[in-house]
Design goal:
Largest interface: A-C, 36 and 33 residues
Distance between the termini of chain C: 49 Å
Oligomer: heterotrimer
Shape of chain C: globular
Shape of chain B: globular
Strand content of chain C: under 5%
Strand order of the largest sheet of chain B: 6-7-8-3-9-10
CATH superfamily of chain C: MetI-like
Helix content of chain C: over 70%
CATH class of chain C: Mainly Alpha
Strand content of chain B: 25-35%
Order of helices and strands of chain B: EEEHEEHEHHHEHEHEEHH
CATH architecture of chain C: Orthogonal Bundle
Radius of gyration of chain B: 18 Å
Number of strands of chain B: 10
Number of domains of chain C: 1
Number of helices of chain C: 10
Structural class of chain C: mainly alpha
Largest sheet of chain B: 6 strands, mixed
Number of strands of chain C: 0
Number of helices of chain B: 9
Structural class of chain B: alpha/beta
CATH topology of chain C: MetI-like fold
Chain lengths: ~240, ~240, ~220
């Protein structure tokens, strides 16, 4: 195709002159992707568990609140949610807060927005897993806890949730993997994570193949690392007779 | 018609079959019995190539299954098989179960396949159920459909792998009745079964297996009245209690 | 600010209509191509041949490891020349639409392959044996016995995947392909009505997807009973 390969370009200093190399940019992008993934996963766990408990709580209203959350966040595409968090939410908040948000450095702002968007999007998936995990427990568990005099919050805290989490650990760790890929959507609001750097490098170096190959390999590498981590965690937490085959 | 010659089979390091030899003539009914895990189901599945083996040979009408020009689908088409768990196709109606292989394998046209299917359903007493789905039938009815499905391919030999052991007791006799009729019509049959009453009634010979070995092969009458080996005596004694 | 200016939306309806057409085209091609490709990959995965199994395995692993955004960029920024050479398209064809379709078909093939493979593996060994015992070839047992059952068992999951695809097509935003979402944003930016237009886009996606998910649940309950 007459393409001039030039891997050396990756080690050249960047055109913006900040003492970095293009490879350095990619590594910085990888770091951002990893940080974003981890932060969003933790938020998703928190949000997902909270709404999952609501869905499993024996109250019509609580269930409806949880169901509404899931419906809103699962039936709107992720990129639309990113845009709404970024462009719409600051507008609908009270002016003071909105102005404050706009005064934060743009790079911090997009990172926080990305964590929120990914966290709430993934939280809806985790919410359903938590609900299903609790529903899958034998009804006798709730009755046994109540017969022992546990109040409902105690029952969830000490009896239902610990069992539920052991069961749903495998899907929870796969969510981590899914977030790492979905985090690429953050580039659409200007976060220079891995895929954002790939696009930036195409503009700066005019050597698209090199930067795309390196970034793709970085994603595959990240994928493998997360998979290994998942396997390790799952081995660690496995209880005799609890996890099934 | 069917001959197994010194067949041995291993699963990894575990030897499942030791040097098994049996010959079955046309029109013969041979019963394979023995304690569970003795390898009789495995042995019978070797005959139509559902399981493979490492040593020995299997012949069907003088031809070896190992021959280069043997095509397994064609080989299996001529050998019918009835399974312990029926294995009807749940996404097809009873009629569909009986016609699909006739049409796709034997290339019979729809009308011919259907005609044949209805005749066979008549024979196993299930004509009225042709339009139903397998899940709507009782276990005994499903197994009779499975026998009819097998017969729809005009097999030259029939293999039965514990055809009644997954059935409730009250349904066993209806399936055995169909099998007895088949035996009396002269079908060559190899049956793995624990139904000793059935065996006495129709078997020409009995092959007794234990731990992957053929311990004893005898005429049916001789086997039941005077088994030669201790293990067969022991087995029969426990079965009759 | 929140008063949707229906006049401007009405005025822009042809742009939005064109966007909807693109969204539906990409979705449809991704579903049809993905199911076809996924079936082939699943067949390879359960075939007796070790090299074919490995090909299927690594194909699925590769496409599932790379973010969709990157895939779309790959196919748009880097291989339009290859696409032109392979498909022999004249330069007048919108390369963005074609490259988006190719990226989606290749990716969704991997997802459908996993779904179909799980459906096949979920069937009992006895079904394979029964089909074989009737003299069916490998192809015949797959075609008439195994795949119909696998598809039936996996139908709800496949339908859910179709809804996910419909949502994911909005990511063609990254290659500036004017689908429903991209065009909505463009109008919003042009008219200074980005906030209401984004909310409108979200509402439309929500209505369609929650309607379809409800339909899937309804069908699931009906077949279960």
């Amino acid at each position: 195709m007459g393409y001039n390969w030039n891997w050396g370009v990756l080690l050249q200093p960047v055109a913006t002159g900040e003492g970095a190399t293009y490879l350095g940019w990619i590594l910085h992008g990888l770091l951002l992707t990893a940080a974003l993934t981890l932060a969003a996963w933790l938020l998703a766990l928190l949000v997902g568990t909270a709404f999952g408990i609501l869905r499993a709580w024996p109250s019509r209203l609580c269930d409806a609140i949880g169901a509404t959350y899931v419906s809103l966040f699962r039936n709107v595409p992720l990129i639309v949610q990113f845009f709404i968090w970024f462009f719409v939410v600051p507008e609908v908040l009270p002016t003071a807060i909105g102005d404050w948000i706009k005064s934060i450095t743009p790079s911090t702002q997009v990172f926080v927005v990305s964590v929120l968007a990914l966290g709430f999007f993934t939280g809806a998936r985790i919410c359903e897993q938590v609900r299903a995990g609790i529903a899958a427990l034998p009804p006798g568990q709730l009755q046994a806890a109540q017969a022992l005099g546990f109040r409902l919050p105690q029952t969830f805290r000490h009896i239902l949730l610990p069992q539920c989490f052991r069961r749903i650990l495998p899907p929870l760790t796969s969510e981590f993997l899914i977030i790492s890929k979905n985090s690429a959507v953050a580039s659409t609001i200007g976060l220079l994570e891995l895929s954002g750097q790939a696009r930036q490098l195409v503009d700066f170096t005019a050597q698209p193949y090199e930067s795309f190959i390196v970034v793709t390999l970085a994603y595959i590498g990240l994928n493998i690392v997360i998979l290994r981590l998942m396997e390790w965690i799952q081995r660690r937490i496995r209880l005799p007779g609890m996890m099934g085959a | 018609m069917i001959a197994l010659k010194n067949v041995s089979k291993w699963y990894e390091d575990f030897q499942a079959l030791h040097d098994c030899s049996v010959a079955v003539e046309k029109g013969e009914v041979v019963i394979f019995c023995g304690p569970s895990g003795s390898g009789k189901s495995t042995l019978i599945k070797l005959i139509n190539g559902l399981e493979d083996f490492q040593k020995g040979d299997i012949l069907f009408k003088g031809k070896s299954i190992r021959d280069r020009d043997v095509r397994l689908p064609e080989w299996r088409r001529r050998i019918g098989m009835v399974f312990q768990h029926f294995e009807l196709f749940p996404h097809l109606s009873v009629l569909g179960n009986l016609t699909i292989a006739q049409q796709k394998v034997l290339k019979r046209d729809a009308a011919e396949a259907e005609h044949k299917a209805m005749a066979l359903l008549d024979r196993v007493g299930l004509r009225a159920h042709a339009g139903k789905y397998p899940s709507q039938l009782s276990g005994g009815q499903q197994q009779r459909v499975a026998i009819a499905r097998s017969l729809s391919m005009d097999p030259e030999v029939m293999l039965f792998d514990e055809p009644t052991s997954a059935l409730d007791p009250e349904m066993i006799s209806e399936v055995l009745a169909v099998m007895v009729e088949l035996a009396q019509e002269g079908m060559t049959m190899l049956c793995v079964t624990h139904e000793m009453g059935f065996a006495r009634q129709v078997a020409d010979r009995v092959v007794f297996m234990d731990a992957g070995t053929i311990v004893e092969t005898a005429g049916a009458e001789a086997f039941f009245s005077a088994p030669q080996s201790d293990r067969a005596r022991d087995f029969l004694g426990r079965l009759l209690l | 600010m929140f008063a949707l200016e229906w006049d401007t939306i009405l005025a822009a309806r042809s742009i939005i209509g064109a966007g909807i057409a693109v969204t539906l085209q990409v979705t449809l091609v991704a579903i049809v191509g993905g199911i076809a490709g996924g079936t082939v990959l699943a067949m390879l995965a359960v075939s007796g041949s070790r090299p074919l199994q490995l090909f299927s395995k690594y194909y699925v692993a590769l496409f599932r490891a790379v973010p969709l955004v990157m895939l779309l960029l790959w196919f748009f920024l880097i291989v339009p020349q290859i696409l032109r050479a392979v498909f022999g398209l004249s330069p007048s064809v919108d390369i963005r639409l074609v490259s988006a379709m190719v990226a989606f078909v290749l990716l969704e093939s991997a997802f459908f392959a996993e779904i179909i493979r799980a459906g096949i593996i979920g069937l009992s060994k006895g079904q394979f044996h029964a089909a074989a015992a009737l003299g069916m070839t490998r192809y015949q047992s797959m075609r008439y016995i195994i795949l119909p059952q696998a598809f039936r068992a996996m139908l709800p999951i496949m339908m859910t995947q179709c809804i996910v695809i419909f949502q994911d097509t909005s990511l063609v935003y990254v290659i500036s392909l004017g689908d429903f979402f991209r065009n909505t944003v463009s109008i919003g930016e042009r008219d200074g009505t980005l906030v209401p237009m984004l909310l409108l886009a979200g509402a439309v996606y929500w209505a369609i997807c929650s309607g379809l998910s409800g339909l899937v649940r309804f069908l699931q309950n009906r077949t279960a009973s």
